[in-house]
Description:
Elements: E1 4-5, E2 18-19, E3 50-54, E4 57-61, E5 75-76, E6 78-79, E7 89-90, E8 93-94, E9 97-98, E10 102-103, E11 115-118, E12 133-140, E13 158-162, E14 168-169, E15 179-182, E16 194-198, E17 204-209, E18 226-233, E19 245-249
Antiparallel strand pairs: 1-6, 2-5, 3-4, 7-10, 8-9, 11-12, 12-18, 13-17, 13-19, 14-18, 15-18, 16-17
Amino acid sequence: xxxxxxxxxxxxxxxxxxxxxxxxxxxxxxxxxxxxxxxxxxxxxxxxxxxxxxxxxxxxxxxxxxxxxxxxxxxxxxxxxxxxxxxxxxxxxxxxxxxxxxxxxxxxxxxxxxxxxxxxxxxxxxxxxxxxxxxxxxxxxxxxxxxxxxxxxxxxxxxxxxxxxxxxxxxxxxxxxxxxxxxxxxxxxxxxxxxxxxxxxxxxxxxxxxxxxxxxxxxxxxxxxxxxxxxxxxxxxxxxxxxxxxxxxxxxxxxxx
Length: 257
């Protein structure tokens, strides 16, 4: 209970909510680490053609059945509850067969309420080539650590920021600049410890830990409050206030634990 699927849980091709492609199931461009000994790659003729969400149930339509005794993986978007449900189990039903309930993932709820503070409320003018760049400060205190880069992996944990429609992140070749520091600190986290990327939608920013810096969460017993400054282009024309999203992940592939 608590998790909910979107009404259209398939989504458009530009922003899919149900993913079966082997190169993106476990994160963007992760086909190179696909566990071929354990998982079957979805054939294109088996790819889902529809997905209908009804609260905590999702009904996925497949044009052709899957091969028996083979294991498949897919990723589906859900709306998280505020806290982990007391009974946090999931099930899958397919072809008149039902799985045993299996453990869901825990919700990493931030300590307190994160805040977003812009420098400017000015809007961009339509047709202008001189867009307003707005530094926005996000103050947050995570519950879980965001790990540093492990020796055997290219990246550690990741912070993901999503802005409302109308805003877009400032980027050059999908690379971005940020300032991350402990609240009140005079020095920021070294840029060499961070890698900032904006995805093709221009509304999602991924900040990867690629050095020795680790973000300390409350669970560690030495949690810190942090300030992250990101740079966005303001919307064109007036716009009502909307929700920003900040998520943290322990793995750069953004897999749930």
